[in-house]
Design a protein that fits this description.
The chain folds into two domains: about 60 residues, 3-Layer(aba) Sandwich (Rossmann fold); about 55 residues. About 40% of the residues lie in helices and about 20% in strands. It is built from four helices and three strands, in the order E-E-H-E-H-H-H. It has a three-stranded antiparallel β-sheet, with helices on one face. Helix 3 runs antiparallel to helix 4. The longest helix has 19 residues. About 5% of the residues are buried.
């Protein structure tokens, strides 16, 4: 959950935005829209802890926050989904491991017990890191 309370950001003595408050509950999806220069990127950087707060507070509970930087060095051969996963490298590695083990289980019955144990460990770590809601 993300809780933003009375967030204010000032540049050169003027408020970019002031007393912004909102909550994003687990599983919710939001969009931030507005004209250029209105503070959308600054707001997201403040929530992520990459930009200092002029006033107010941001509280993150029960998960992790990841975002792709606006100035990201995007590789043209990757899909948007692949690019999104670059913000969560450990989860991405676990997701790939899970996919590989599942494929191996289909092809190899000889090591099925060992592969099933590996798969169970990878699934549990993926769950602990909050990976189930990432594809959305």
């Amino acid at each position: 959950m993300i809780v933003v309370e009375n967030l204010t950001k000032q540049f050169a003595g003027r408020d970019l935005f002031s007393t912004v408050s909102f909550t994003v509950s687990s599983g919710e999806k939001i969009g931030v829209v507005g004209p250029n220069g209105s503070g959308k990127t600054t707001l997201l950087k403040m929530i992520a802890g990459d930009e200092p707060l002029s006033n107010g507070q941001v509280n993150l509970t029960g998960g992790q926050l990841a975002y792709l930087h606006q100035e990201a060095d995007v590789e043209l051969d990757r899909t948007l989904n692949d690019e999104m996963w670059t913000a969560l490298p450990e989860l991405y590695s676990l997701k790939n491991l899970i996919d590989q083990i599942e494929d191996a289980l289909i092809l190899e019955e000889l090591n099925a017990e060992s592969l099933a144990a590996d798969l169970n460990r990878a699934h549990e770590r993926f769950r602990v890191l909050g990976g189930q809601g990432v594809d959305a």
